[in-house]
Structure formats: structure tokens, C-alpha cells
Design a protein that fits this description.
Elements (H helix, E strand, L loop, with lengths): L9 H75 L9 H15 L5 E4 L3 E3 L4 E3 L15 E6 L5 E8 L10 E9 H4 L2 H4 L7 E6 L18 H8 L1 E2 L5 H9 L4 E7 L3 E9 L5 E8 H28 L2 H30 L5 E6 L4 E7 L2 E2 L10 H11 L3 H10 L2 H7 L5 E10 L2 E11 L7 E7 L1 H55 L4 H32 L8 E4 H18 L3 E7 L5 E4 L1 H17 L6 E9 L6 E10 L6 H4 L23 H11 L3 E7 L3 E12 L15 H6 L10 E5 L3 H13 L3 E5 L2 H10 L7 E4 L8 H9 L4 H4 L3 E5 L4 H9 L4 E4 L4 H13 L1
Parallel strand pairs: 19-21, 25-26, 25-27, 27-28, 28-29
Antiparallel strand pairs: 1-2, 1-6, 2-3, 4-5, 5-6, 7-11, 8-9, 9-10, 10-11, 12-13, 12-17, 13-14, 15-16, 16-17, 18-20, 20-24, 21-22, 22-24, 23-24
Length: 870
């Protein structure tokens, strides 16, 4: 049975003419609103994507730049370390230089490692090249680390890292710089640079826009980047090709948005690589960012229109229901897609918020590394969120600063002239201290809304602290050097003036009493004592200066240790006798008497200690000197202890801790009248350290002191008498030479540029019976000898530092004369260049002997006697 249809009521009949047009009108309004809603949502999405793109592209570029800068710093450290190993052995000749280069190249894993000398010659492991210009290195000496970009023969761009080489003058090759040349792949390979996971394209260019790495992808190969942009790129409002090119020419970082006919809108960030002419770029296409979002928007819009028509025709209630559902789906899908972009663009940030400080709003987009999908609808108080966070995590010392920087007016002011505002602070989380950086970035086209990102910067802070420590250490060293300089000048002012006052004072007295020979003789004796002390002081200062500058060289030769002991005893015997001291020297368990060592420096160590023992031991006291061979030395070496003990005044415990510091003396009434510079023990300790040994001291006030020097020497296995140079005159030596040998009839050529020194030398030589002739410099000396009659000169006394031609060159030219008799005239250096290496340089130049200024008359007589009669 069928059911009868109900008739429409009167009310329904009245509403029908109004209802359908109303529904159609409502549907039309909803349709228009939907279109505008989609358009505004798309515009906001584009603004957010543009801001996030810059946010992330900058991080990618900075990360790549840090990687490259770290690589350059690492290679620079390797080169500096290699330079520190460079010594005279490696500089003897070209073969030695190449051997050193090959060794350092292999040790440091460098493809190219080279040295350049003062003449612009470049040495590599397998070749020698003329001219440094091909490597971009100036021929003159460089003073600091230099980084250059050059083109090699294959037009490949290379990066050259060069460091200066500071070395003493040598008879070999004089190196002024060390460098390595790296291609781009050695610094940052294409695989390291490229990251297509999120369609981010990174490249390296030089300042002219040339691509430095071949990587297939978004940049056309074989074309200049500037040529492409100038002809094909349409830059967005606020950006221009001229600004981009100007930034590159000036080495400035920047950001640009442009579009091309083939690729559409593109986001580009570029950053200069420090110390180079290169740029890193990071690029992302808009279609890679917005493709999903835009396609979803278009699909949903089309679906909404169809659904709107269907519902309008059928039932407005269902239409409204569908519209609401579609809006929710569209919003959720758009939020999800946007959060995917946020996640991709914020790998370095653990927390990101959409904030509006002016209106006290904050919404979480990413927290503790996790994305929030409903961030655009859930807002909370900006100020309350910061307050809870600061109270819970920020350390007390940083809270005031953080509270100030998060104020709306402060952020607004900071963003007036900048695209971003960042500051750093510290937090405490689970009793661990962390450094955090917060960055505020304004959304494009937005007045109040900001993207706020947080990231941990512990690694960067530690690196910065390490750099700061290096700078602080350098500052402390400089300040210490300044203080040491002040102490040095104060001490030298006093210690030099004291003997100088005696010299000047007694000279004045001698001039005033020329008729009283006894007084004049006494004054001259005191002048001699003061002059000797002044010379000792100058020698100590020069020795200390050479030690501190690293110029003190150890010259090892064959040495017979019992002779060292015998010579030391001879040197100090007069001082021991004058104070009536009981002195005893012995060797204990001496098996290896012949060793290889620097006898000059060993004598200096022991003589300094023995002189102090004599100086600080009262008359009638005791001094013992023992040389003991010890066990435990490495194979091929022998160990020795040199023990010097006295029963003198001793020293306090506090002073004993500082005895090896420069200019240190114990200020007591007992030693206040004893002359000294306070440098002797510092020099002694430094020489012992350079020789690889140890020095110990035991002492008590009033009971004396004992110094123990421990050294290892190479054993001399050759059974032959040791060769001793410039040893003190023994008894046998004196018996062979009379106290006043007869030099009459002998004629000397004195080569000296200083008139006062000429006069002193001539007077002394005339007093010994010599005839003399003067040459004012080396060039004049060579000419006098060349034109002299046969046998006119028996010997030449040669100064070293002179104008026009120095003594070394003059000696070489005289020995090269065609006349063999003139070429064989003995030449003795008489110079203020008194160091051991100066003496060796004189022998290397062909001289027959060496006399240091001021002139020691007894040594002068012996040297001239040996040269003329032996």
C-alpha cells in the first residue's frame, strides 16, 4: 500500500519563491569569497616561503664557507709546521732543498709543495722553475700569510697559500717563502658542495662570475654567470643585476630573487669566501618550493567550484557542509606542505616560532626538532612564553640582556635597517651549559609578524674561544715582552753606567795627573778592570739576545773531555789563587773520553758556574769539580754529570726557584758588593736546554751550593787525538813563543774603515815592531795587494763590516789573484763580529785566523806569531 504524499503547507508555498533565489545568491557570495580566500592564502604562503628561502639558503652558504675556510686554515697550519722543520741542512744545495720538499709533501699529503728563494727561483720536488709570477707570489719577501687565486697553464683556477720563511743568513740557498697550489676540487669537491636532497644547488664562482666546479644541474656550463643574468634574468622588485655584480666586485654577501623564461622564479644567496676571490652560491627554484603547494591550491580551487555548482543546484545545506569540509582539508593540507618546507629550510634550527611581539602573539612551528602542523591556528602569549623560558633555562647573568632584546620596540628598531636581528645567550639544561643564538626575521610585506629561530652554537663558540685564547696568549706574550724590555733597560742603564763611570772617571783623573806615573798606572789598571767587566756585560747581553731570538747555534766537533777539564782549571787558576781557595777537580768512571759536542758552549756552561762558585765563596773556602760518566744513555751516546760544589754563602729557597730567570740576583747585604748582571745563570740554563740536558741546583744559606749539569754526548769512536781550536795557551805553547817576540822587519796591511780603530791598531802594531800600511775598505785592500811589489806585505789584518766591499769578499778576491805569492798572503780577521758562527764564516772565506775586538794583546801576539812563524 502506497503512502499518500503530504501536501505542502501554506508557509512552505510562501517561502518557495524566496528560498531558491536566496540559496543561489548565498552560493554566489560563498563562491566569490572562496576565490578571494584562496588568493590571500597563496599570497601569504609566497611571503613566508620567500623569507624562509633566504633563511635557509644563507645557512647552507655559511656552512660551505666555514668548511672551505677550515680547509684553508688546516693547510696553512701544515705549511707553517713544515717551515718550522726547515734548517741549514736542507738549504745546503738544490738537491737538499728538493729532498726536504719531497719529505714535507709526502708527510702532509700535499699535491704541490714548493719553496721560493730571494731571486724568484721556485723549487718543487722534481723541478726548478724561474720566476714566481706564475704562482702569484711576489719575488720580494712576504711578511704574512698570503692567499691568491691564479690561472694555471690549463686555465684552471688554483688557490695559492703562501707563508713567509724567516731564516738566518746561510752559505746555501736563501728561501723567503713557502707555498702550495690547490685546485678547487682539493678544497671542496663537487660531491661535498652539492646537495639535491631539498633541490638546493650550490656552486663556486670567482668574482668575474666564472664557474670553478663542473656540476651538472641548475647552472649552465661553460658560460659566465654575469652574462646569463644580464641577458636572461628578470630581477624582482628590490633586487637588480647591477647590485649583484657590485656586491661581487666588492666581495660582499647578498641575496637576490629573479626569474628566467626557462626556469621561472629563483632564490639566490651568495657569500664571499674569506682570503680568496671566490664566492659560494646557494640557489633554489620557486617551482621546487611551491610546486606542491600551488598545485594543491589550484586543484582544490577547481574542485571547490565544481562542488559549489553541484551543491547550488541540488541542496544549499550540503553545499555549505562541503565548503566547510573543503576549507578544513585545504587548510590542513596547506599547513602540512608549508611545514614540510619549514622543516627542509630549518635543519640548523631546533626551534622556530611565528611571533608578533607588538600584539603579544606566538605560535610554535618547530619545537625540539619536531614540526607542528597546527601552528597557524594556535597562538599563545609571546611575553609569557619568553618569561617562563627565561626563568627556567637562561642563566642569571644573561637574563637582563635577553629581557631587553626581546622587547617589541627593540626588535622593531633593530630591523629598521637590517633584514635580521640576532643575539646570543647561555642556558643551563640538565646542569649542562649551552650557548644559544636567536634570530628574528621579518616576513616580507609584513609589518609585525616575524619568524624567530633558535639554534645551539656551542661548536662555534668553542672555536671562537679558541681563537680568542690564541689572541690573548699573543697579547700576554707581547705584554710580557714589554715588561721584560723595561726590566732589561733599567738593569742595563745601571749595570752599564757603573763600569762606564769608572772608565770615564779614572780617564779624567789620569789626564789630570800625567806627571805622576804611579797614579796614572793605578788609574789605567782600574780602567782595564772596569773595561773587562763592561765587555763581559755586553757579551752576556748579546748571548741572551741571541738565545731569545733562536740564533744560538750548536757546533759539534770532536772533543777530549779530560782536556776540557784541564783547560777550565787553567782558566780559573789565577782567580782561585788570588782568593786562596782550595780547588779540586777529578773525573769519575770515565770510560768514553772522546765525544762529539760543542766544546765552546760546554766551556761556557761550566765556566759560568765555576766563576759564580769563586765569586760567592769566601777567601780560604773550598770548591770541587767532578765529571762523572753515568749509565742509561741511548745507544751511541754517553751520559755525563758535571758537579760543581762550593762551601760559599749559598742562597735562600725563594731565590733558588728564580735563579735561572734573567736579571735575577739575591738582594742581600752579603752579595750587594759583588758585580754581576744577573744573566749568567739564565744563559747557562738556556744553553743546557738547547743541548738537550738538565741543570739542577741544591743550596742552603751559609752552607754553599752544588750545581749538577746532566748532558748526553755522541761517542767519538775514531781513535785519534781531538782537534782543538782556539784553546787557551798551555805551558808548552808559551815556551815556544817568547813573551815579546821580535816582529821587526814585518809589514802588515791593516784593512779598517774606522779612523779611531786604525790609530789604535797601528800604535799597537808599531809597539810590537811591525811596519804598517792602511786600506780604508775591502776594495782598496784588494787593489793595494794587486799592485804591490812582491813580498811587500807579510800579513793582512782584515776588518769584516766595511763600505763598498766587506772583509769576506775581499779575502776571496785576494786569494783569487793570478800571482800565487800574493794570493797566499796570510789574512787574519780582526773584527767586532765575535760569535762562533762569525769565526766559522771567516774560516769559510779563506782567512787564517780570527781576533775579536776589543783586542786582547796577548792573543794578538800569539795569533800573529803562529801565522808568521809556524
Amino acid at each position: 500500500m502506497s503512502r499518500k504524499k503530504d501536501k505542502p503547507t501554506k508557509k512552505q508555498l510562501l517561502l518557495r519563491p524566496v528560498l531558491y533565489p536566496a540559496l543561489i545568491f548565498i552560493a554566489a557570495i560563498l563562491f566569490v569569497c572562496t576565490i578571494f580566500w584562496f588568493r590571500d592564502a597563496g599570497k601569504a604562503s609566497e611571503q613566508m616561503i620567500n623569507s624562509l628561502s633566504k633563511f635557509y639558503l644563507e645557512e647552507i652558504a655559511e656552512r660551505n664557507v666555514r668548511t672551505i675556510a677550515s680547509k684553508i686554515e688546516q693547510i696553512t697550519d701544515q705549511i707553517n709546521k713544515a717551515v718550522s722543520e726547515l734548517n741549514e741542512e736542507y738549504l745546503k744545495d738544490e738537491k737538499s732543498v728538493k729532498s726536504y720538499i719531497s719529505l714535507m709533501q709526502n708527510l702532509n699529503g700535499l699535491d704541490i709543495f714548493a719553496l721560493a728563494d730571494e731571486n724568484g727561483i721556485v723549487y718543487t720536488a722534481d723541478s726548478t722553475l724561474s720566476g714566481t709570477s706564475r704562482f702569484g707570489i711576489p719575488s720580494e719577501e712576504i711578511n704574512d700569510t698570503a692567499v691568491y687565486s691564479i690561472k694555471n697553464y690549463d686555465t684552471e683556477t688554483m688557490l695559492v697559500i703562501a707563508v713567509p720563511v724567516v731564516q738566518p743568513e746561510t752559505a746555501g740557498i736563501h728561501i723567503v717563502s713557502c707555498f702550495t697550489a690547490l685546485n678547487v676540487e682539493s678544497i671542496m669537491s663537487a660531491e661535498q658542495l652539492q646537495n639535491n636532497e631539498n633541490k638546493i644547488y650550490c656552486r663556486m664562482f670567482d668574482r668575474e662570475g666564472n664557474n670553478l666546479l663542473y656540476i651538472s644541474g641548475e647552472y649552465p656550463q661553460g658560460k659566465n654567470l654575469f652574462d646569463i643574468y644580464e641577458t636572461s634574468a628578470d630581477f624582482a622588485s628590490g633586487y637588480s643585476f647591477e647590485k649583484l655584480k657590485n656586491d661581487w666586485e666588492n666581495g660582499q654577501d647578498g641575496y637576490a630573487v629573479y626569474s628566467t623564461e626557462s626556469a621561472g622564479a629563483t632564490y639566490l644567496y651568495y657569500k664571499a669566501i674569506p682570503d680568496t676571490d671566490w664566492f659560494i652560491t646557494s640557489l633554489m627554484r620557486e617551482n621546487n618550493i611551491n610546486k606542491v603547494v600551488k598545485s594543491g591550491s589550484e586543484d582544490l580551487l577547481n574542485s571547490s567550484i565544481i562542488m559549489l555548482i553541484v551543491v547550488s543546484v541540488s541542496l544549499i545545506i550540503f553545499f555549505l557542509y562541503i565548503i566547510i569540509s573543503v576549507q578544513k582539508i585545504r587548510k590542513n593540507q596547506n599547513d602540512i606542505e608549508q611545514m614540510k618546507i619549514v622543516g627542509a629550510l630549518s635543519n640548523n634550527y631546533s626551534d622556530i616560532f611565528l611571533t608578533d611581539p607588538l600584539h603579544d602573539k606566538s605560535s610554535t612551528m618547530k619545537e625540539h626538532g619536531n614540526l607542528h602542523t597546527e601552528w597557524n591556528s594556535k597562538f599563545r602569549s609571546y611575553n609569557d612564553s619568553w618569561s617562563r623560558y627565561i626563568e627556567k633555562y637562561v642563566i642569571e647573568e644573561d637574563r637582563k640582556m635577553v629581557l631587553h632584546n626581546i622587547k617589541a620596540d627593540i626588535i622593531t628598531d633593530k630591523l629598521k635597517n637590517s633584514d635580521e636581528f640576532t643575539f646570543n645567550y647561555r642556558i643551563s639544561n640538565n646542569d649542562e651549559l649551552h650557548h644559544v643564538q636567536v634570530k628574528f626575521v621579518r616576513l616580507p610585506g609584513e609589518k609585525d609578524r616575524l619568524i624567530t629561530g633558535f639554534r645551539y652554537i656551542d661548536v662555534q663558540v668553542k672555536a671562537e674561544e679558541a681563537r680568542h685564547k690564541v689572541l690573548q696568549d699573543a697579547l700576554d706574550a707581547a705584554q710580557h715582552a714589554n715588561r721584560a724590555k723595561t726590566v732589561f733597560l733599567n738593569n742595563m742603564s745601571h749595570d752599564i753606567r757603573t763600569p762606564m763611570n769608572a772608565v770615564i772617571g779614572y780617564t779624567t783623573l789620569a789626564q789630570a795627573n800625567t806627571d805622576d806615573k804611579e797614579k796614572v798606572s793605578d788609574y789605567l789598571s782600574k780602567i782595564q778592570i772596569s773595561s773587562t767587566h763592561l765587555l763581559s756585560l755586553i757579551n752576556d747581553v748579546l748571548d741572551m739576545s741571541r738565545i731569545e731570538s733562536g740564533q744560538l747555534n750548536i757546533v759539534e766537533k770532536k772533543v777530549h773531555l779530560p782536556d776540557v777539564v784541564k783547560d777550565l782549571c787553567s782558566i780559573i787558576q789565577a782567580d782561585v789563587d788570588s782568593k786562596q781557595l782550595e780547588f779540586h777537580a777529578e773525573t769519575v768512571d770515565m770510560v768514553n773520553e772522546d765525544v762529539i759536542c760543542d766544546s765552546l758552549r760546554l766551556n761556557q756552561i761550566l765556566l759560568n758556574i765555576l766563576s759564580n762558585a769563586i765569586k760567592f765563596t769566601k777567601q780560604g773556602g773550598k770548591i770541587s769539580f767532578k765529571v762523572i760518566q753515568t749509565s742509561g744513555a741511548p745507544i751511541g751516546f754517553a751520559g755525563y754529570e758535571f758537579r760543581i760544589k762550593d762551601n760559599g754563602i749559598g742562597m735562600s729557597e725563594d731565590f733558588r726557584k728564580h735563579i735561572f730567570e734573567a736579571f735575577t740576583r739575591e738582594q742581600t747585604s752579603t752579595v750587594s758588593g759583588i758585580q754581576g748582571t744577573g744573566l749568567g745563570m739564565s744563559i747557562t740554563k738556556s744553553i743546557v736546554d738547547i743541548m738537550g740536558g738538565k741543570i739542577l741546583v741544591e743550596s742552603q744559606p751559609g752552607h754553599g751550593s752544588e750545581f749538577i749539569v746532566e748532558l748526553n754526548f755522541r761517542i767519538n769512536s775514531e781513535e785519534q787525538s781531538p782537534i782543538k781550536e782556539d784553546a787557551p795557551c798551555s805551558v808548552n805553547d808559551k815556551s815556544m813563543m817568547q813573551d815579546n817576540p821580535d816582529f821587526s822587519g814585518k809589514k802588515l796591511l791593516v784593512v779598517e774603515d774606522n779612523e779611531l780603530n786604525q790609530e789604535i791598531a797601528v800604535e799597537i802594531l808599531h809597539g810590537l815592531g811591525f811596519e804598517t800600511d792602511i786600506a780604508e775598505d775591502g776594495a782598496a785592500a784588494v787593489e793595494k795587494v794587486r799592485t804591490a811589489a812582491d813580498g811587500e806585505y807579510d800579513l793582512i789584518l782584515m776588518d769584516i763590516q766595511m763600505p763598498r766591499m766587506d772583509g769576506y769578499e775581499a779575502t776571496r778576491r785576494i786569494h783569487a789573484l793570478d800571482d800565487p805569492k800574493k794570493a797566499s798572503i796570510p789574512i787574519i780577521a780582526m773584527t767586532a763580529n765575535a760569535f762562533e758562527e762569525d769565526k766559522q764564516a771567516a774560516f769559510n772565506a779563506g782567512m787564517n785566523g780570527h781576533i775579536a775586538k776589543p783586542i786582547d794583546l796577548s792573543k794578538l801576539k800569539k795569533t800573529l806569531y803562529d801565522a808568521l812563524f809556524r
